[in-house]
Structure formats: structure tokens, C-alpha cells
Design a protein that fits this description.
mainly beta; seven-stranded mixed β-sheet; four-stranded antiparallel β-sheet
Length: 124
């Protein structure tokens, strides 16, 4: 059974940085497409970044401050977040799927497996 567990969230001042981690179990990590999404109260879930085999994708609004990466040996997905802003406050989720078509990389329903999320709060 595929399981994803996020960690690394917390409270940080504006301008600060955080690294989120997502450890997986139950599948061959390197063969799955994965992504980071976030959801703020009252808002829809939105994509932050996606990663496949040797490639990464970012929505235009996320380019420059967020970096997605993976360590296959540690079965872990990462999200480096820099220059954080109060509007980055949200629950952050990692997601995985055996194969996500490129046009749907930023579409939450394209991912079959989800973690429980980790809260990120950015204070001004």
C-alpha cells in the first residue's frame, strides 16, 4: 500500500526558508511522478511543483522561490522554499502517481496518492 508522509512544516517569519520532506513507502519511488500542492483555508488546492524522471515543472507563479527534488536512495521528496511570504501560508501536501501526463502535472485529480499534509505558517 502506498503511503506518503510529509514533514518539515512550521512557523517562519516572512523572508525565511523551510525545507519540506515527503517520505514514501509501498512503491518503487523512482518510477512514480510526484508533486507538491498546497491549500489555504477557503481556497482551492494549487500546484507548487512536479517532478518526473529527470525533469521538474513549476507553475509560473511558483518559479524562482520553490525547488522540488528527490533522493531515491532515501525514498524522499523535498521542497525547498525560500523568501517565504505570508500568502504562502497553507497546508502543503505531497502527491504521487505511476504516470502523470505532462499537461496534467498541475492538476490534483491526476495524482492517485496523497499524504496528510504539513502546515506552513508565514508571519509578517
Amino acid at each position: 500500500q502506498v503511503q506518503l508522509v510529509e514533514s518539515g512544516g512550521g512557523s517562519v517569519q516572512a523572508g525565511g526558508s523551510l525545507i519540506l520532506s515527503c517520505t514514501y513507502s509501498g512503491y518503487t519511488y523512482s518510477s512514480y511522478d510526484m508533486g507538491w500542492f498546497r491549500q489555504a483555508p477557503g481556497k482551492e488546492r494549487e500546484a507548487v511543483a512536479s517532478i518526473g524522471t529527470g525533469k521538474t515543472w513549476y507553475p509560473n507563479s511558483m518559479k524562482g522561490r520553490f525547488t522540488i527534488s528527490r533522493n531515491n536512495a532515501k525514498n524522499t521528496l523535498y521542497l525547498q522554499m525560500n523568501s517565504l511570504k505570508p500568502e504562502d501560508t497553507a497546508m502543503y501536501y505531497c502527491a504521487a502517481d505511476p504516470l502523470v501526463p505532462t499537461p496534467r502535472r498541475f492538476d490534483p485529480p491526476a495524482y492517485q496518492y496523497w499524504g496528510q499534509g504539513t502546515q506552513v505558517t508565514v508571519t509578517s
